[in-house]
Amino acid sequence: MIARVLTIAGSDSSGGAGIEADLKTITALGGYGCTAITALTAQNTLGVEAVHAVPPDFVARCIRAVVGDIGVDAVKLGMLANEGIIRAAAAELPAGVPVVLDPVMVATSGAVLLAEGAARALAELLLPRATLITPNLPEAAKLTGLPVESEAQRLAAGQRLLEMGARAVLLKGGHGEGPDLTDLLITPAGVTRLTLPRIATRHTHGTGCTMASAIATLLAQGMALEPALRRARAYLQAAIATAPGLGAGHGPVNHLAWAGRLD
Fold this sequence. Notes:
By secondary structure, the chain is of the alpha/beta class. 37% of the residues lie in helices and 22% in strands. Strand 7 (169-171) and strand 8 form a beta hairpin.
């Protein structure tokens, strides 16, 4: 049976991030994507102009509808908009499947997407349910209250996230500096560094959504965590390198970079 991935996230009108990026990624990697849309956003590569949150009870009904009929092999959590939606998602998450939590708090453009109270609810209710949490550096700092300037500080922030309940942390290095980009996989068993050349580009809209949904798809297909991370990072690297160059700001990546690839 095809791997079924439920993405619980916001919709991006420009198609580069959120639900739209998730569905493209899931499909590109051979999965079947289902959705529970948490918010509508009016946005483009220049920024978020407006956000319209979906009522929490409707989000819950969407999750129940998918789980009860199609079934779910993995869940990707993205933009959850407010505390009510976070509580609804936490109450309806299916048991026994991998959950990849992308703690979307601030858009690439700088727009705040999650209020302080909602961030606390996310940490308390969803972090302990996460098979993997995939924060970027600003998100890790916000969740833990710790600095993340040096690698030692990033490792400490990752350990704090484990102490807060996450089973594994992928601390992404995209907001760092230097010619190479290093993601840190931090688990109770130790630390693994995933290093690739940094691609100099402004076309990075939706990279966090793409990475998390790629990992969720690969986990749904039965791949172990570390190989799933490496394959997802390779897919994202190719998507960034072949970005279509759309928009005047942070443009989208090419989710079809691996189109036709059979391995």
